[in-house]
Here is the input.
Amino acid sequence: MKKTLAFLASVCFSSMLSAQWNYPETRRTDQTDTYFSTVVPDPYRWLEDDRSAETGAWVTAQNKSTENYLESIPFRGTLKQRLTGLWNFAKSSTPFKGGKNYFVYRNDGLQNQFVLNILRTGPQSKPEVFLDPNTLSKDGTVNVSALSVSHDGRYMAYAISKAGSDWEEIYIKNTTDGGQLNDKLEWVKFSGIAWKNGGFYYSRYDAPPEGDVLKAKNEFQKIYYHTAGTPQKNDQLIYEDKNHPNRNFSASTSDDGQWLYIFGSEGTSGNNLIVKNLNEPLSGFITLVPEFENDNAVIGSEGTKVFILTNKNASNYQLVQFDASMPDASPVVIIPQTEDVLQAVSFGYDKIVAQYLHDATNVLKVFSKEGKFLYDVPLATLGTIDQISTDKKDSLLFYALNTFTAPPTIYQFNLKSKEQEIFFQPKVDFNPNDYETKQIFYTSKDSTKVPMFIVYKKGILLDGNNPTLMFGYGGFNVSKTPEFKIERLIFLENGGVFAQPNIRGGGEYGEAWHEAGTKLKKQNVFDDYIAAAQYLINEKYTNPTKLAISGRSNGGLLVGAVMTQRPDLFKVALPTVGVMDMLRYHKFTIGWAWKSDYGSSEDSLGFRNLYSYSPLHNIRTGVNYPATLVITGDHDDRVVPAHSFKFISTLQYAYKGPNPVMIRIDVNSGHAAFNALGSSKPVAKQIDEQSDIFSFLMYNLGMTVR
Here is the structure.
């Protein structure tokens, strides 16, 4: 009898899933906008008011509808249990030096936030808890987003964010005894913390209008100086530009405290650079880089010599040296560009440590200060290097090595003796030796060769029936290299194939690769991704009924664009915190800065281009779209949730087919899941979210959890 009831329940459930869904009704209005004689409807404009009672009720109804679906997936609980077990292993960051002390982030497994420890007698000393973000909120939604130790090592300033918002508050601790100062700085966003003497420079905005904190346009950013132990109202205004509201400014200082660097930007690509000699208080700012066309990052300085990593006249970047005492002189090239991208540079023990990107994997090289190549740092395997930590007066180099199937191992390398050892190696309940990662090159629509990583269990059969998940980004000069993600392990160990194409718009092959996927060339990004899918199908890895796509932020735009352009290629689509309304993205928070990659609907050519692929505006009736789970957070103030709200409302209205099209809106959650210091979103929330995402994904691909 029990077996009969179970069978009937299974039949009813399958029938329910294949039926047309009755989604919560979303009110439509007659709102329209006219762009260069083209009338564009926007019936869900009211959802842009994400703090209204009506929008709140809509969020509740949509979440309930989605939860009803997810809780009916038979293996959801099993998957969450396995994911929790996989997540439960000790993790560590690389140590970094501040004054005479080292600091390191640790997580014992399931802590919501990484805990900052101080190492008082060297990197091998016993860790002491210095700052535990888990004590700042009961639900783990407060995280440390940035920190900086004063040059004398006396103070540490740290920034926190709440519920995933980009807004930050800065506080100060004494490193000697861990005592907390009374300082509290507000309305900080996209800021560094640059120490000089007993205070620091930071960036902030004026307070936004009440009620618009999470969506108001961020304009007129300013640089201030704060003296430790004083109220914020006494902070000194250092730099502003009243004529250019859409410029951001960030500050940093040289290790010796002589130079203040201020970087100005008008978008996500390109910045100018002005400097001030702090040893001469009455001196003015000196312009080293006047234009905004190229990316320029200060690496360090010696006296008046300033070292800058730049892509000016070097698509793959080069290291140059400016002389601040002769700002009109041409810079001296220290490390010229090569065929590989010079991704990052740091100084350690009178040497230059250079991180290169070769076909989307990293190599590490050491040069003299004059730019002479000395030797390669040997790497245990092909992968991604991050969290590089060096100190000009210390011979120790720390770095993390990341692969698709193993969590980051932390290495300690001695720049003097060339000896290398493992500083920290995590142990996870997963055997990476059972899996294979290979890199192939496929041909895109315009004959461009594009690399792609493919990860799968050894012994896979290329019979065209493997469930496959593609992940992509393709924008803002961001390189997508091998990266360990705990949640993907469940997909792999249950027979899934993971693929990550390095499409244009990213930085895998320098600025030229980036520019080839921007503005009027943005369609190249989508063509590259579609060609990757076709390669996987042609080579018998999978077929359109077994192929899923996913991406975050700009990658969410990617998913939205390709699922509306080629819905026939994909069975499941997972756009996360995506930019979906390409005609209005620039009207919210920091969205205006993305014009450097996207262009703008404010000019006719830009409008026609954006309108041609904007996911929101290319949903059609009578089309069989993939099973779609849109993911966003109600506190996302980078890509505001209205993008996802309007997209899913349009899709639910237009699509009448059998596949579920739903939205999961995380409450008290923002844009990013991780930052450089560990977790942004609490681990508990990450496990809940990823359990839901992979339950939806695997069920709709016909998989089970073993």
User: Anything to note?
Assistant: The chain has a mean pLDDT of 94. Residues 33-85+436-700 form a domain with the Rossmann fold fold (CATH 3.40.50.1820).
